[in-house]
Design a protein that fits this description.
Elements (H helix, E strand, L loop, with lengths): L3 E9 L3 E4 H18 L1 H5 L11 H8 L3 E4 L2 H4 L19 H17 L8 E5 L10 H9 L4 E5 L5 H14 L5 E8 L19 E9 L7 E10 L5 E2 L21 E2 L1 H22 L7 E6 L4 H12 L12 H4 L6 H8 L9 E8 L3 E9 L3
Parallel strand pairs: 4-5, 4-6, 11-12
Antiparallel strand pairs: 1-7, 1-8, 2-3, 6-7, 8-13, 9-10, 12-13
Bound molecules: coenzyme A (COA).
The site of coenzyme A has 22 residues, from α3 and α8.
Length: 373
């Protein structure tokens, strides 16, 4: 057992949500127009007509029913099909920091803590709005924390890797208390004109307050953690500040998220189940010692497969809760949001496991135990 404790969590969701039907209606209107505009090229065999999307496919293939977005109007405007954000002045808070700050404030409030109790802010997310100054330092500044902040990024494992960094900071005496903030503003990464992926992501921000055990009442003890990365090209974004210097300069469309979904599914599920089982065994724990698995939320069928392999039996939804129906894939935030929404009903001593998986490939796993209040 470590001397770090997850004391509380907080969540920010954008006010607007887009249903599958709304998303598909927009996509299909755009496809109809595109096919009409390209009718001659299609008739002469120069190009293939684009096929419509369907809500039925999306829900069956992924389990997603809706997603939150920072700008519904921009996403559903067929002349735009990407969120629109107001450009902020240099002295205004950034979109990511604002989202993260709201989640951080809720985490502090739920723990009855003040920013003066916190020594550091780690902002860990799949993408950063800018390279510097750090989003974490913006949040630190907005809260008035006298300490340090830094940004880090490990794709879909950003949340768990950030959590493990926060735990390490407590363990090594760097800090008494750390705010881990994972603002995942993912919809700008998405090509809403790509049938294979237009439904995948949603926006959210989640925050965890991690404290030294002797200073914290209640919360969750950290029993152990694991990180693993294995190189794969199957989930990729080529977006970055080098794009403007590349020769030839890539088209804007080439900078979005792309994936080989089937390969990801086939390769990642066994790796995750194996890592969890190995971690449990190394800690002399059994799968049935875990009351709940808070898994990464990319695809319902992946989660069912992984949970079945781990438990080696049928299991209830309470044992592997799902939030992606409402939120879609929120990248590094998924397992943390599942924890935030579904961490009730634990008696002191009962255990659970948070596990993220995704691009990299990356897997992050943390085993926790409920403490007495
Ligand atoms: N609407 C309707 N049909 C669609 C569609 C859409 N939006 N997108 C694809 N299809 C069709 C395909 O054309 C294909 O048709 P065909 O069989 O006639 O060729 C069929 O549906 C299956 O397509 P496929 O891409 O193989 O779907 P899938 O079952 O693999 O599901 C994902 C797609 C993305 C939901 C799934 O692969 C997935 O979630 N993978 C893991 C993703 C993941 O975890 N990524 C990590 C990112 S962090």
């Amino acid at each position: 057992m470590t001397n770090a404790v997850i004391r509380s969590s907080g969540l920010w969701t954008p006010p607007e949500s887009v249903s599958n039907d709304e998303l598909v209606a927009c996509y299909n209107n755009w496809v109809e127009r595109w096919n009409r505009d390209n009718a001659d090229a299609i008739a002469s065999g120069q190009t293939e007509p684009k096929a419509p999307s369907s809500s039925g496919f999306i829900e069956k293939a992924s389990g997603i029913k809706s997603r939150y977005t920072i700008d519904k109007a921009g996403v559903l405007d067929i002349d735009r099909m990407r969120p629109q954000v107001r450009r902020r002045a240099d002295d205004e808070i950034s979109v990511m920091a604002e989202a993260g700050l709201a989640a951080a404030r809720e985490a502090l409030e739920r723990a009855g803590r003040d920013p003066a109790d916190v020594d550091g802010v780690i902002c860990s997310a799949t993408t950063m709005q800018r390279t510097y100054p750090c989003i974490a330092i913006e949040i630190q500044h907005a809260l008035g924390i006298d300490g340090f902040g830094y940004d880090m990024s490990v794709a879909c494992s950003s949340g768990t890797f950030g959590l493990i960094n926060a735990i390490n900071a407590i363990e090594t005496g760097q800090a008494r208390s750390i705010l881990l903030v994972t603002p995942e503003i993912t919809t700008p990464q998405l090509n809403f004109r790509d049938r294979d992926s237009h439904f995948i992501f949603g926006d959210v921000a989640v925050a965890f307050l991690i404290e030294r055990a002797d200073l914290a009442e209640g919360g969750w003890s950290i029993l152990g953690s694991r990180m693993k990365t294995v190189y794969s090209n199957n989930i990729r974004s080529n977006f970055g500040f080098m794009n403007a210097c590349e020769n030839p300069e890539p088209a804007f469309e080439d900078r979005y998220f792309v994936q080989e979904g089937r390969k990801v599914f086939k390769e990642v599920c066994p790796m995750v189940a194996e890592l969890i089982l190995d971690q449990l065994q190394s800690m002399q724990l059994a799968a049935n010692d875990m009351k709940r698995l808070w898994l990464h939320q990319a695809n319902i069928n992946m989660n069912l497969m992984i949970a079945r392999k781990v438990f080696d039996r049928e299991f209830s939804e309470d044992e592997a809760p799902v939030i992606l129906d409402e939120f879609a894939n929120t990248a590094g935030a998924g397992s943390l949001v599942a924890f935030h929404r579904h961490s009730d009903g634990f008696a002191p001593g009962e255990k659970g496991l948070l596990c993220s998986f995704g691009a990299g490939y990356s897997i992050g796993s943390v085993i926790v135990e409920k403490r007495a209040a």
